[in-house]
Amino acid sequence: MICVMGAGAFGTALAISLAHNGEVSLWARDARHAQEMDQHRENRKRLPGIMLPDRISIHSDPSSLPEDSTILLSIPTQKLRAALTEHAKTLSRATLVACCKGIELSTGKGPVQIINEILPNAKTAILTGPSFADDIARDLPTALTLACEDEAVGKTLQNNLTTPNLRLYRTTDVTGAELGGALKNVIAIGCGTVIGAGLGESARAALMTRGFAEMSRMAVSLGANVETLAGLSGFGDLVLTCGSDQSRNFRYGRSIGRDETFDSAVTVEGAATAKAVRDIAHEKSLEMPITEVIAALIDQELRVDQAMDMLLSRPLKEE
Ligand SMILES: NC(=O)C1=CN([C@@H]2O[C@H](COP(=O)(O)OP(=O)(O)OC[C@H]3O[C@@H](n4cnc5c(N)ncnc54)[C@H](O)[C@@H]3O)[C@@H](O)[C@H]2O)C=CC1
Ligand SMILES: O=C(CO)COP(=O)(O)O
């Protein structure tokens, strides 16, 4: 049985795609939201205009899940620990696939590390890469990375979670996949800022490229393979998120560049992750100048012109 926990935009989109393969359970924490979705066969709150196939059953009580389920956790990273702790008994024997992109601010851990800490006996993996929920839900072609340390479990998940429109590539480099998905959101905030402030497409390309160098430097220093960063979960998602105003991280950055306010209820994973990355960089003495200025912009410690001056006046060096 495949179950998606978290009826946000991404969880709902994954459930829609997986329904091509068979029955799927979609679990929403809010009973009223679950009831509304069931009544209208639509997630009007997070994915309006897209019908939920009959093969999706909607629940708000996770204790009804079979113990050996595969559960896709589509919950923002900063909320994941609370959700796992609350439902630890139900989840302890399942195969848990993190479907979130971030680093926990209070611990510096990625989603799989958080799951392994709370549920040490669960089989774990992460599903990440370039995909907007809306594209997946509309059955547009998408390719993602499925990272699982246990190769046999990874192969089973790859087969079970690939759908006619959602093609999964496999790796055992969980650290690389986790970090690619988390770090690209920080750079996307920076690219949004550049565009919002009217600094131009050339500046965006420079920030993406030097940001990718920064992402790779940190990920490799934490044990990732550099090839993983060059794949779907790193470079692929960086390109998508930095180049599209469908991205919430990009739009949040754009609001910083335009000096506008942004709706604090919208999920922007890169905002907390930027600060978590800055903390890790300080602890490990890693040079992360782009992340430093993005975290400072988020904290309103710098203006955009000051941030640009800081980056442009750095000592000249080899690429
Ligand atoms: N929306 C997108 O296009 C994509 C999102 N993602 C990732 O998916 C993750 C979720 O994002 P979205 O679904 O877009 O966010 P969203 O804001 O649409 O939904 C988040 C969902 O998490 C639920 N939630 C929050 N705290 C919870 C808790 N303690 N227990 C249970 N559920 C809880 C909320 O009720 C909400 O339904 C993020 O890490 C995001 O980076 C990944 C790829 C694409
Ligand atoms: O992760 C995503 C695309 O792969 C979604 O991006 P946002 O969270 O910025 O909307």
Descriptive overview:
The active site is at residue 184. Its main location: cytoplasm. InterPro entries: 6-PGluconate_DH-like_C_sf (IPR008927), 6PGD_dom2 (IPR013328), G3P_DH_NAD-dep (IPR006168), G3P_DH_NAD-dep_C (IPR006109), G3P_DH_NAD-dep_N (IPR011128), NAD(P)-bd_dom_sf (IPR036291). NADPH binds at residues 10, 29, 101, 133, 248, 269. Helices cover 51% and strands 14% of the residues. The chain has two domains: 2-172, NAD(P)-binding Rossmann-like Domain (Rossmann fold, 3-Layer(aba) Sandwich), CATH 3.40.50.720; 175-313, Orthogonal Bundle (N-(1-d-carboxylethyl)-l-norvaline Dehydrogenase, domain 2), CATH 1.10.1040. The longest helix has 23 residues, at 174-196. The protein has an eight-stranded mixed beta sheet with strand order 5-2-1-6-7-8-9-10, sandwiched between helices. A two-stranded antiparallel ribbon has the order 3-4. Helix 8 runs antiparallel to helix 9 (201-221), helix 8 (174-196) runs parallel beside helix 12 (248-257) and helix 8 (174-196) crosses helix 13. Strand 7, helix 5 (111-118) and strand 8 (123-128) form a beta-alpha-beta unit. It has helices at residues 9-18, 31-40, 77-86, 88-91, 111-118, 133-137, 151-161, 174-196, 201-221, 226-229, 232-243, 248-257, 269-284, 289-298, 304-312; strands spanning 2-5, 24-27, 42-43, 47-51, 56-59, 70-73, 95-98, 123-128, 142-147, 166-171. The model has no long low-confidence stretch (mean pLDDT 97). The protein contains 15 helices and ten strands. It is an alpha/beta fold and 319 residues long. The structure holds 1,4-dihydronicotinamide adenine dinucleotide (NAI) and 1,3-dihydroxyacetonephosphate. 1,4-dihydronicotinamide adenine dinucleotide binds at residues 6-11, 29, 46, 74-77, 79, 82-83, 99-102, 131-133, 267, 269. Residues 101, 130-132, 188, 237, 240-241, 247-249, 269 line the site of 1,3-dihydroxyacetonephosphate.
